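Hi R.,

As promised on Friday, here is the backbone we talked about, encoded as structure tokens. Could you run it through your design pipeline when you get a chance and send me back a sequence?
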């Protein structure tokens, strides 16, 4: 499936709308929202915010959020966008009024916030960062927030006499929103690539043909795989994009979450576990062949049952779909630093989270097995881990069963 450059209409037709996001980190969001490259302009702010610079803004939010230790995601990010038809009459003063009115109607009239207008698109829009921990130190409830958002936007459209697109215009505008169009095309591209792939390597190669890369969300603190995302090269979506575009599998479609993809291509933890087992069996066989009868009697001490040495991985591999929160055995900093310098498919997104490709994932899942495979002098290397049917260990383990039956007889 070829993804054609997106043709985006110059004058997009739509009514005012609001987008809501929640998170746990203020710092990165503040830097994004108050970015001079977008000509970010402050249009409104609450009391309790030190507006000197991005760091003081962040510190103001973080200090106040600390009043509620139970609130794990204190960050709310609202994007309010307006039709290009409203551009001539929406100035910063009116935007400030709209933001304050919007927050009050949404139930956030007792919370810290800052609002910055951006000028990087044709239509007026404003980004609002809001602290869900209110001035009483309690977390503001967000139940039915999306439904409330729709109603509030309609009410504000009428109150401020904003542009209302006709039925046909509204539908056309909805289809032409740049990000929606990209997401829609990526969803079909990823689905079609998955349908023609029999393993992870095939899937990666099929996506690469379309300018799309896959990355796993890896938690270095828990040693867990938390999700998958897909990124399309900006050159594949026309000349309007200044950066690559990424969506999580869930954002594209519920069928493209990591667990659902694993049902088709295999659980990555199980794949690495079985290939490590193959290396372990090779090392055991080699040790058996190179030692005398007296030494061989100790083989079960040197090479004990494989699964018993790795109970977490053995349990995880029983699941067809990935269910891996991690074994809470953090990776060594040296390994992460080495990977960051030598592998292109890894990026640090903060808070102990890495986005890693297939090769890097194999390298990060392999360390627990190294000492066991090397116990009898066998070689252990993450470079032997493969994700496709052409991998020698996977092929040998699944196809050449005679080798293992012969080997296991010798061990008895």
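Update: got your reply. Pasting your designed sequence below so it's all in one thread:
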């Amino acid at each position: 499936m070829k993804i054609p450059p997106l043709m985006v209409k110059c004058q997009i037709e739509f009514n005012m709308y609001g987008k809501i996001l929640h998170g746990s980190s203020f710092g990165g969001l503040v830097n994004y929202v108050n970015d001079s490259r977008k000509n970010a302009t402050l249009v409104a702010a609450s009391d309790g915010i030190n507006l000197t610079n991005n760091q003081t803004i962040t510190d103001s939010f973080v200090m106040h959020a600390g009043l509620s230790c139970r609130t794990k995601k204190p960050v709310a990010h609202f994007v309010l966008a307006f039709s290009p038809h409203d551009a001539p009459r929406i100035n910063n003063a009116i935007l400030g009024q709209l933001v304050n009115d919007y927050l009050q109607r949404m139930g956030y009239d007792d919370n810290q916030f800052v609002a910055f207008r951006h000028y990087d698109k044709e239509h007026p829009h404003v980004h609002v960062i809001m602290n869900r921990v209110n001035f009483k130190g309690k977390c503001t409830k967000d139940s039915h927030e999306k439904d409330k958002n729709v109603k509030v936007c309609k009410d504000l459209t009428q109150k401020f006499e904003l542009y209302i697109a006709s039925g046909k215009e509204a539908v056309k505008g909805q289809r032409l929103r740049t990000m929606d169009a990209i997401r829609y095309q990526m969803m079909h591209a990823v689905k079609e690539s998955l349908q023609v792939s029999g393993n992870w390597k095939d899937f990666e190669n099929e996506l690469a043909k379309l300018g799309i890369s896959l990355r796993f969300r890896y938690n270095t603190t828990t040693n867990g795989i938390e999700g998958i995302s897909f990124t399309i090269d900006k050159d594949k979506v026309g000349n309007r994009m200044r950066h690559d575009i990424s969506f999580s599998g869930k954002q594209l479609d519920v069928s493209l979450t990591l667990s659902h993809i694993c049902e088709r291509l295999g659980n990555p933890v199980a794949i690495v576990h079985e290939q490590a087992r193959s290396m372990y069996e090779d090392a055991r066989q080699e040790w058996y062949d190179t030692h005398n009868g007296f030494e061989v009697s100790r083989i079960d001490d040197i090479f004990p049952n494989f699964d018993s040495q790795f109970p977490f991985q053995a349990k995880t591999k029983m699941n067809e779909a990935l269910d891996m929160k991690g074994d809470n055995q953090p990776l060594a900093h040296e390994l992460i630093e080495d990977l960051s310098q030598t592998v292109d498919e890894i990026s640090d997104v903060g808070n102990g989270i890495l986005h890693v490709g297939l090769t890097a994932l194999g390298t990060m899942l392999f360390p627990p097995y190294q000492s066991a495979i090397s116990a009898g002098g066998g070689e252990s290397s993450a470079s032997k881990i493969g994700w496709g049917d052409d991998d020698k260990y996977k092929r040998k383990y699944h196809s050449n069963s005679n080798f293992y039956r012969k080997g296991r007889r010798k061990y008895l």
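One thing I noticed while checking it: Residues 17-176 form a domain with the BirA Bifunctional Protein; domain 2 fold (CATH 3.30.930).

Thanks again,
M.
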